[in-house]
Design goal:
Protein name: Glutathione ABC transporter substrate-binding protein
Strand content: 15-25%
CATH topology of the largest domain: D-Maltodextrin-Binding Protein, domain 2
CATH architecture of the largest domain: 3-Layer(aba) Sandwich
Low-confidence stretches: 1-47
Helix content: 25-40%
Structural class: alpha+beta
Mean pLDDT: 89
Shape: globular
GO molecular function, one term: peptide transmembrane transporter activity
Family: Belongs to the bacterial solute-binding protein 5 family.
Radius of gyration: 24 Å
CATH class of the largest domain: Alpha Beta
Distance between the termini: 33 Å
InterPro entries: Peptide/Ni-bd (IPR030678), SBP_5 (IPR039424), SBP_5_dom (IPR000914)
Number of helices: 16
Keywords: Signal, Transport
């Protein structure tokens, strides 16, 4: 995969990327040896393990169990303690963790993992192939009521080949299985925790279930106060041992309060940051602001069962009528980029298209060609948060220029999702989509495949394209990576040209930290990796 997410540090005037946490040796001539040794000693002293890292997060976690988690705050905390077979790095590349290697079958219905030996959980139990099977069987069992059960529904069976080899069998060809297993919800927990739940249905995995193999282990969770993890001394990976003694996560809902706590040194890292607050921090000398493309795509969805959107000229006119650069400047304070595909650049398989340039004259010509120069009335649904309402109101103003009279209706997010899932009276809506698997199939299929219309999934616009359906199946059924990527590129070109959405923007992922904090990075999903954090 190409390196996608580039993190820049602002505030100290440098171009420093996110610290890798790795020491770099020095080589020099004889007369330079003393100086190099002094510098090496100084560097070693700086990177000694120690200290408590304090992290301000926007909300209380919902669970310590990755199989029952759908929010980023919980995933950030869990990632210090829990590991899966694979994971995404800062560039959204898949890297091995508890698996040393994996291989697809020729028909892409099976993926076989060779597991790492000598790994133990925080409670001393051994990690092996049986552990993988028990975890995946447990999360897939709908009787256990776990939030991520449906995420693993593609699995038909998990077979233990030997102590350190396991095969996952899909119910149909699925070349995206590795991406699913790199997702944070595919982390492994001790089989002892699963056994406790099976023996006692009242055992609370959400509170007690964070027994993983990671560099930190769970200490305590005090409601509305903090979650504390501490360094695990017997961590299996000597190269990536924790470099701080502990991490304390503090839920602070108000963004301005988080910012002030960072300024005063009450916390070392804050995530996330609203764009307005990010602009305030950008030039502060004692703070680093990190930005990079997220995996979120904002769009205006439209219902194809409404005759107003039958003509492609109307759909393209709407795309040309909205000044996306202006939207990014006014609503996002400049922290974003124009969406040039239905998926964002960090998503594996992304292929950018030529954007719909802002051109009101051309948009009006297209409306006239469709016989709708006088426009029509429309209703746009949105979540009732400040950001979403601001986007909807911006779209309302812009579409008025081509005589589309938009009425904005804001709803609580759960209510809005229920309305879209019901598929009744839907017209336009402000959507945001990010594929948790980090790859193109889950980024595209749920929104555009014909079998994903309400109530099945996200295709709330009832967009039907049989040619596209066949391409989805072709891409997913081949284990040939290059071939699959070529098909996904064609899919994105077809979708962008057909304009089933008004493609808006991709917001930046933003975090801030003190300049004395090193070794962290932010994933495009917004989750923050703190495992190699250092304080010096």
């Amino acid at each position: 995969m190409a390196s996608i997410l580039v993190l820049s540090a602002c505030g100290d005037g440098s171009d420093e990327p996110a610290d890798s946490g790795e020491d770099t040796g020095q080589n020099g001539e004889t007369e330079q040896q003393d100086e190099a040794e002094d510098e090496g000693e100084e560097e070693a002293a700086q990177t000694e393990t120690g200290g408590d890292l304090r992290v301000g997060i926007e909300a209380e976690p919902t669970s310590m169990d990755p199989h029952n988690t759908t929010d980023g705050n919980s995933a950030t905390i869990q990632s210090t303690m829990m590991e899966g077979l694979l994971r995404f790095d800062e560039n959204m590349e898949i890297v091995p963790v508890l698996a040393e290697d994996y291989e697809f079958s020729d028909d892409a219905t099976e993926i076989t993992f060779t597991l790492r030996e000598g790994v133990t959980f925080h409670d001393g139990t051994e990690f092996n192939a049986e552990t993988v099977k028990e975890n995946l069987d447990f999360v897939r069992d709908t009787d256990n009521g776990l939030a991520r059960s449906s995420f693993f529904s593609f699995i038909e069976d998990v077979t233990v080949d030997d102590d350190y080899q396991v095969t996952i069998v899909s119910d149909e060809p699925n070349s995206a299985m590795a991406s699913y297993m790199a997702h944070s919800s595919a982390a492994m927990k001790s089989v002892e925790e699963i056994s406790k739940k099976l023996e006692d249905e009242d055992y609370n995995l959400d509170r007690e279930g964070a027994v993983g193999t990671g560099p930190f282990q769970f200490v305590e969770w005090r409601d509305s106060e903090h979650v504390v993890v501490e360094k695990f001394d017997d961590y299996w990976n000597a190269d990536e041992e924790a470099r701080v003694d502990s991490i304390t996560f503090l839920p602070v809902q108000e963004a301005s309060t988080r910012v002030n706590m960072l300024r005063t040194g009450e916390v070392d890292v804050i995530t996330p940051i609203p764009t307005l607050n990010a602009a305030e921090l950008e030039n502060e000398e004692d703070l680093d602001l990190y930005t990079g493309s997220s995996t979120d795509v904002y769009y205006v969805g439209m219902n194809f069962e409404n005759d107003n959107y039958d003509d492609i000229n109307v759909r393209k006119a709407m795309n040309h009528a909205i000044d996306k650069d202006g939207l990014i400047a006014q609503v996002l304070d400049g922290y974003g980029q124009v969406a040039d595909s239905a998926i964002a650049p960090p998503v594996y398989g992304y292929a950018g298209q030529s954007v719909y340039e802002y051109d009101l004259d051309y948009a009006r010509e297209l409306m006239a060609e469709a016989g709708l120069e006088d426009g029509f009335e429309a209703t746009i649904w949105t979540r009732n948060s400040t950001e979403f309402v601001s986007v909807a109101e911006y779209v309302e103003i812009q579409l008025a220029e081509i005589n589309i009279d938009v009425s904005v209706e804001a709803y609580e997010s759960g209510t809005l999702f229920d309305m879209l899932d019901a598929g009744e009276d839907t017209d336009l809506w402000i959507g945001r989509w990010s594929p948790g698997t980090g790859e193109a199939d889950y980024g595209l299929r749920p929104n555009f495949a014909s079998d994903r219309v309400p109530p099945n999934f996200n295709n709330s616009g009832f967009y039907i394209n049989e040619e596209l359906d066949a391409m989805f199946d072709d891409a997913l059924s081949t284990p040939d990576e290059d071939e699959a990527m070529a098909v996904y590129a064609d899919i994105q070109e077809m979708i962008y040209d057909d304009a089933p959405w008004v493609f808006l923007h991709i917001p930046d992922a933003l975090i801030a930290k003190g300049t004395n904090i090193h070794g962290i990075y932010v994933l495009p999903s917004g989750a923050v990796n703190l495992n190699l954090a250092e304080i010096h």
